From TrEMBL:
Binding site for Zn(2+): H257, H261, E287
Protein name per the record: Metal-dependent carboxypeptidase
SUPFAM superfamilies: Metalloproteases ('zincins'), catalytic domain
Pfam families: Peptidase_M32 (PF02074)
Job of this protein: Broad specificity carboxypetidase that releases amino acids sequentially from the C-terminus, including neutral, aromatic, polar and basic residues.
Amino acid sequence: MTAYTDLMTFQRETEALAQVSGRLEWDQETVMPRGAAPQRAEEIGALEAVLHARRTDPRIGDWLDAAEGAETDEVARANLRRIRHAYTRTQRVPARLAAELARVTSVSQGIWAEARAAEDFAAFAPTLEQIVALTRDKAAALADGGAPYDALLDDYEPGATADSLTAMFGALRPRLVALRDRIMGAERRSPALSGDFPEAAQMALTREMAQAFGYDMTRGRIDKAVHPFSSGGGADVRITTRTSATDPFNCLYSTIHEVGHAAYEQGIDPVHALTPLGQGVSMGVHESQSRIYENQLGRSRAFTSHIFARMTDTFGPLSVDSPEAFYAAVNRVHPGFIRTESDEVQYNLHVLLRFDLERRLIDGSLPVADLPEAWNTRFEADFGVAVDRPSNGCLQDVHWSVGLFGYFPTYTLGNVYAGCLHAALRRDLPDLDTRLAAGDPGPATGWLRDKLQRHGALRPPRATIAHATGEEPSEGPLLDYLEAKFGEIYGV
């Protein structure tokens, strides 16, 4: 037995326990009885304490010291790199703090959901204050004298910094705003789909679309949740969606989006299962998969012509009467409060708002009590619409309630990565639209599986995209794609 073998045996057990913890969280979001929340918080907190103890076990340091330099295989070196990075970071966070943060964020999910339903930010504010305080402590411990927000970012996008993201987002914003303004001033309008769409039929169609995009239902399942998400890895990858009787796109595209996440996890080479490489390398790269599935593929003119036919078969005649009108309806640019329901043009403006506000929450310049006013003021300045209620404002997203500070910017980073991947994919698959129009995204999803998904976390995030596309990632391809697509739809 070598030090590397001993380390990886220990790591497999840790990864398996982490999957169990994730399953508890999935259960909490989907089918857990509401009255079980306090006990579940204790269970998750206890498991987190066990995981923290394993992740800081001093034997890991000894094994790493012995294995590093002795292993020359690319996979082994990548595993060692990721274990060393995680070990160093986890050692910096006291076990008590890790367990308390896990316990509080478990309870807070229910508190947030009830406050959101009741349109009562004040009911959630004390819990959010507690989460922010604990997250600041965690950030300070992780930063070890560096920038606290950058330390939080590293959990989701290793190598990213607030400064690098601010520069990228600064380059995105002017062209996004200019495109949005041209569209809003255009004479051409896109229709909105209207009608009544029974839930059972929506769910049947959404399962069909999930499987068309390669989701393996023998290793997954689709359930409903307040906020759609993907959970798990390897042989057990679950997704959730939501339905609206008047908006089937909500269900359909939430599902395709989450299938992108799930396909990444399901597509990783099984040899990496229950190792540090057997998962998506970062949330930005993960989001690139969900966004390219949802938008560049799922909202393309070719694939929407197939969806139009299937929706007509399922629901009867629609309020839009042609594939071209349906394509315009799917891609309609319109004012709206909700990030997850936003069109491609304005989506990143929603993310930039959250990125700026959460940095201020972490550095202490924005007290939690002032968050609704800060959100509403910024939203009206960015979108020209006054927020009418908390569920359309700062209570709409679950992320802060579960301590995911540093997560939001990865959504826009994922869009940037998706733009790069789409440009390369179209270069390699010039006849893709023929297959998409037939309802078959297989060539595209196969390309993504081969170029990116099967490698898991073998390479760092930016190197993962560069390896798949042959070029360093930049915001240019995304902006070019948006301007071409929506310029054509709206004649601007």
